[in-house]
Structure formats: structure tokens, C-alpha cells
Amino acid sequence: DLESHLRRCQQLSVTVLTDHQDLNNTELKTILNSTAPQQYRIRAKLRTYKPQKLYQSIKLHCSKCNSLQEVPDGDDFDFILQGSAVTAPNPELHNTSWYDSVMWTTQDQKQRKIAIHFVKHDEMLQQPEDTLLMIEGGTLKEVWKLTKRFKCVIPVRSTEDDLELLDLSAPFLLQGNIKYYGCKQCSTPKPVKSLSSIAAEQRPSWEPTEIAQVLGIEPLQYVFIMKFTLVDGTGALNAYLFDY
């Protein structure tokens, strides 16, 4: 795996870190005194790399404002879901022209009210693997159960006159085991009824980019970032890896 490979690179006395076989080796001291951008071939030792744990290399990046942020963990999402469950689903928002609603009360002590809204196409429900649904009042465990069966899950809450997305610290969409987040700075969330325009399409595909667009969300992309410190006896150079 990559972690053990990086450790081996640190242990080797010299490691070829870039290819460019047509170029001669250049000392790091020369590179540090040169102006960018230029292309070099180096021989150097990997002194350190960050982060030490590979999962910490995954960040969320906004291509619009160029911001980077940590990927929220499941506890953050669970906390937001619990907060939204305090407000009971508004029955007046159930069973519209573009979605069918089901509501029930849990049998536990809290007796939570949960509502699921199944988006229709041509006034019919689609097959589960093609269905987008919205859930109110669910726990993290319940949300993940739904993502295993249905194509797309959007956590929502009720207002007086419409359903709305949760705080953008939570994912605006879950598809399989992927959580899609929006940029708080660049997004202007729209009411959930904006999704009805996709439901009206001839063959709704429920693509995350299209869902984000109609909901006024600037999507964040998962990126892989690492920092390497390279040495060759003449100087030390920091090299950064950034990739989608």
C-alpha cells in the first residue's frame, strides 16, 4: 500500500522522484534559486511526508472560491440530523404533485416522527434503484439503510411552506456510500421544490451535479493532498501533491 511504500522511500538512501529521462539531474539548491515554472529531474531522499495517516489526505475543495476544508465525520452529520428531528414533519407539505409521502412514529421512548417523500416521475414511482427520496427526522443509521436500497437520499426538514435542506455542514445528497457536500460560502440554497424540474424530465438521471445546480449548491469535490520534503545534501524542497 501507499503508506508502506512511502516508508520504504524514506529508508532508501536515494530515490528517483521524477522521470524526465531526457533531463540531467539538477541539485535542489539550483531549483530553489530558480524562477518557476520550469521542469527538472532530481535525485533526492524523502525526509518527511504529511499527513502521516493517509485518510487525513482527503479534503473537500471548492473550485469557485478555492477553499479547502476537512471532510466532516459521521458524528457531525448525526448531530445535525438529531437537531433537525426536534421539529416534527409538517403534514401540509405531504403528497404533492411530484412526490408521495409516508410518515410514521418510532416505537422507542422518543417516539420520533419520520417522513419519507418519494419523488415521482410521470405521476408514478420509479424503481428503487432509480428513485430519489427525501427524509425528515431520520437517524444516521436510518439514512444509511435507505442509501443501500434507493439511488439518492436527501435529508430535509419542514418549514411552514416548503421542505428545505439541512445546514450545509451536512451532505445535501447521499448516493451509495458517497456523501456530497456544498460550499457554505458559494451556495445559495433554493427550496427543495426546485427538484420538481428534474422530476419532470423525460428520463430523470438524478446526477449529483444537476441536483446541486437546481438546488443552488456549489458542490465541493473530494481531493487528495500530500506534502513531501525532499533533500539531496544541497537543500530541502517541499513538494505538494494535489489531485481529484
Largest sheet: 6 strands, antiparallel
- Strand % is 25-35%
- SS-derived structural category: alpha+beta
The span between the termini is: 19 Å
As a percent range, the share of helical residues equals 10-25%
Strand segment count: 14
Global shape: elongated
Number of helices: 6
Give the mean pLDDT.
89
Any idea what the radius of gyration is? 24 Å
Domain Protection of telomeres protein 1 C-terminal insertion: 75-219
GO biological process, one term: telomere capping
GO cellular component, one term: nuclear telomere cap complex
Organism: Aptenodytes patagonicus
Architecture overview:
By secondary structure, the protein is α+β, with helices and mostly antiparallel strands. The protein is 19% helix and 31% strand. Strands 1, 2, 3, 4, 13 and 14 form a 6-stranded antiparallel β-sheet that branches. Strand 5 and strand 6 form a beta hairpin. The protein is elongated, with a radius of gyration of 24 Å. It starts with a helix and ends with a strand.
List keywords for this structure.
244 residues, POT1_C_insert, 14 strands, 19% helix, single chain, alpha+beta, 6-stranded antiparallel beta sheet
Write a concise synopsis of the structure shown.
With 244 residues, the chain is an alpha+beta fold.
Topology record:
Blueprint: H1 2-11, E1 15-16, H2 28-32, E2 43-50, E3 58-61, E4 68-70, H3 74-84, E5 99-105, E6 113-121, E7 124-125, E8 132-136, H4 140-149, E9 152-158, E10 163-165, E11 173-175, E12 178-180, H5 196-199, H6 208-214, E13 221-231, E14 236-243
Parallel strand pairs: 8-9
Antiparallel strand pairs: 1-2, 2-13, 3-4, 3-13, 5-6, 6-7, 6-8, 9-10, 11-12, 13-14
